[in-house]
Every structure is written in structure tokens, then in C-alpha cells.
Structure prediction request, 321 residues.
Amino acid sequence: MLPLVKRGLLRLDGDPMARPRSSRSAAGDVPKASGTGRAPPSPGAPRHRAKPPPAAAKPPPAAAKPPAPPQSPPAPAKSPSAPPPEAVPALESLVPPAIALARSAPARPSPAEPTRERIREVAMEVFAERGFEGTSTREICTRAGVNGAALNYHWRSKQHLWEAVCERCGLWFGGIAAQINLAAPPGDAIASFLRLVFDGLVRDARPIRIVGWASLLPHEDDREGVAHHFRPFVGFAQAYIRAQQAVGRIPAAADTEVLVLLIHNMLTYTLLNVRGARTALGSDLAEPATAARVREVIVKVAMDLLGLSETTAEGSQASGG
Prediction:
């Protein structure tokens, strides 16, 4: 045994003189890998470590949903009748000069010439009673306390006096129209206008009687000669309704021209048919309760024709008073 040790063929564990084994033994041992610091694998162990199966690919992360925009609180519901603020300047542009003049000037200015004004006032009374054809200058002079020369000096003729009276009536209607609050909802504005017209004509029916007589003039030229004093207000009423239709405050299906005509005729005939009121109602419009009753029915019919309603309590207060 000793010779084997000396030859280096036998190694004793723990012998400091023992030489390291050769790089490769006959048994096929795998030499220690230099520089790795790891122990060689045990005999029978696989030379290479098996790679683990590839992990299943993870699905890509779902795209994050963008955050929902903050919901603003619902806008308060607008009154179906209130006009938008931008609509008011457009309505103001529809006001004819006659109404604009009535806004800045009193309905009955202090006359610079009392005789001239007295003749016109008396002529308005007579024309309202008899119309143009049934009125004579003699009767006007008698009631006014003047002679024919004074009438001719101030008014030249009955025709000029008739046109002056029609102009005065136009200014009266202009004064009523000038009181309309164009910023109010159309239901309130139109109802207020109708009440002002009705109550004013109950107190003084001369303007509506002049309108009635003017419509009965036999000649077209005569009718056209005075129509221009009233046409601006009819045109303003039509333009106002169309403007409110354009912004959705009055139903677009409403026939503007027909409705204005019907409302005008309803007012005119009711105020002129004094005998009919006495027969149907038992009293005339001089009775406040009767006048209020008729007025509110007219307003209600007009609102129904236009597809409107009032947003204020003015109607109930007016009918109760």
C-alpha cells in the first residue's frame, strides 16, 4: 500500500501531502469548474439544469378609462314665455316711430293755439258720433263756438280736420303700445296691452269709433288716406308676434295676420256693439263689473288663439276687481 501512496496513486483523506487528482479520472469525473466557486455536481446528476417552461404571457393591461367629466347641475327650467335677454333689443328695433314718439311726448300736449285744439276736439266728438260722411262743418263750428272762417283758417277743410282727428287716434293707440314691457313674457305683455286698450276705450270710445267709421268709408282712396295713421300699430303687433315665434315663445303654427285681425275685430265689435251688450248681458260696459267680465273673456280668447298663458297673477286680480 505504501508504494501506491508514494506513487501518488492512492490518496489518504486528510493527508497534507496528498496531491490533487488529475484533471480527469478514469471514472469520467467532471473536473471542478475553475473560477465559479461552486461545487461540482454530484454523480448521476444532469449536467445542465433544465430550463423552466416559459410562463404564460400575461394579457396586456386594459386601457384605463378616461375619468368621466364632472356633471354640471341641470340648468333651471326657463319659463316658456319669457323672452331671452338677447331678444329684447331686437323687439325694440320693431317699435315704429309713432310709438317711440308717444313714449317721449304726452298724449295730449298743451295746445299753443287753444282755438285750433278746441275745434279738433269737437270734431273728434262729432266724427265719432256720425262718421266723416254724416258730419257737417256747420255742426262742428256750432259746438266749438267758432265761425266757418275760423275753422278754415286753422284746418282749411273738413278733410284736413278728419285726417287730424285720425292722427290723434293713432297717437292714442301709440300711447298704449308705448306702455308695453317688451322684456316681459309675451303672454303677460299681450294680456296687459289688451287690458289697457279695453279699459281705455271703455272710458273714451271715440278712438275706436273713429276706426270703425274709417273702415266704412265708401271710397278706397278715403280709407287709405287715414289707414296710414293706424297701420304702424297693426304692423308692430304682427312683427312682435313673429319675433316671439322666431325665439320659440309663441307657437310657430299661429297665423299672425289672421290672429291680429281676429283680435282687432273682437275688440272693435265688442266695444261698438253697445246695444248688443245690453241685450246679452243686461247692462252695458259702463258698469265696471260688466266691463271686467267682458275684458277677461277677450283676453282669455286672445291667449288661446296665440297659444299663450300668463305667468303672473294679474289676470286673476283683474278679474276679481
